[in-house]
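Methods — Computational structure assignment.
A single polypeptide chain was analysed. Its primary sequence is given first, followed by the predicted tertiary structure written as structure tokens.
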Amino acid sequence: MRTILRRPDFRLLFGGLLASMTAESILLLALAIWVKDLTGSNGLAGATIFAVIAPMMLAPLVGWFVDRYPRRPFFLAANVLTAALLTPLFAVRHAGDVWIVYLVAALYGLSSITLGAALSGLIREMVPVELLAEANGLLQTVRQGMRLIGPLAGAALYAALGGWALAGIGIVGFLTAAAVVTALPTPQQAPPPVRLRWPAELGAGLRHLAGEPALRRALLGYGLGSLVMGFSESLIFAYVDQGLNRDAAFVGVLVTVQGVGGLLGGLCSPALVRRLGEVGTLAAGVAFFSPAALALAYPDIRLGFAAVLLAGVSLPLTMVGLHTLIQRRTPPTLVGRVAAATQAVVSGPQAFSIGAGALLVGFLDYRLLFALVGVATLIAGGYLWRGRHLSAPPGTRPPTPVLPAPRRPAEDADRPLATGTHLPPPR
């Protein structure tokens, strides 16, 4: 990852993203805690997370909008707008104002899709193809590190200063990212894309995902895994309570260990992409979740630590493999739409999986469900692994074929030269 950080433009962008990712990691859980304090309801607190996820259905429209504008100024404007939409939080005083938190959460979720799609296109524009895995791996490493400290820091800041302070920190983070982006060098202008009618442009991202073999297999395999991987969000509480006979607070310890695994996965992901290719890395990430889930089916604290560590390694491998594949296999003018469509296609099964897991854990033994997750992710990983040839590692990709020299007309072949060779006549 040192190679990518030697590039001044990416180093500058990385500094801005560090500020905005800090704001993101602090805000998400803290908004739910704020609603819990205002209303006293666990259900209403959980609805805050749903409000953030709900705008995913608009992802194709968002991607189409992102692709219509130059990457750098659009990313700058999106950060400024995100900072502005947090300002209504300063008006929240009592339970009757909880609708403001929901509104901000929904707009924040929409902004998150927009920023993700714009960032994917900006990185594709700034970073050479051979360094995309390093760039994505570095960003995933930082995101996983933020998972270790961000939610705890957000909860502590909320307890000490209140929700308004969180809004202020979020605004500063996004404005800092915008200020940094203004200092980025302006890239060479690309030729304007061919404009189709808007219905055709709106579905262009989905059509590209369906038509490109590597992307199609990646989404099918990862989607299959996502249908059960979300079960763990609810099963981990049953594992701690029924299996380890510990308080629910012990889940925080396991989440911390998972975050350490995420750091390791993020650091290793660029090397794995170079060795296995993007689909192979995605396959490894999904498959690593299988032994983790199977180990959690047996309640033992030592196995539990090893399992959540492996589950932590899994997440950045899947993200780096998928994002790098999108950036390498998508025309620059389509990156926003494809990235947003991918986010929607992946998030749908994940949301269903989280809800289904919360329902099933009340009727079935958590050990049986963990075993089901282990088997399903192993099948999904195997399906992806069989398609790893669709994105071979850079060092093993076939060279560009050399075209044969054009054959001379038959009438010229009979013209002898003194040397015994044949050449075409002069023009």
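Note: The chain has a mean pLDDT of 79.
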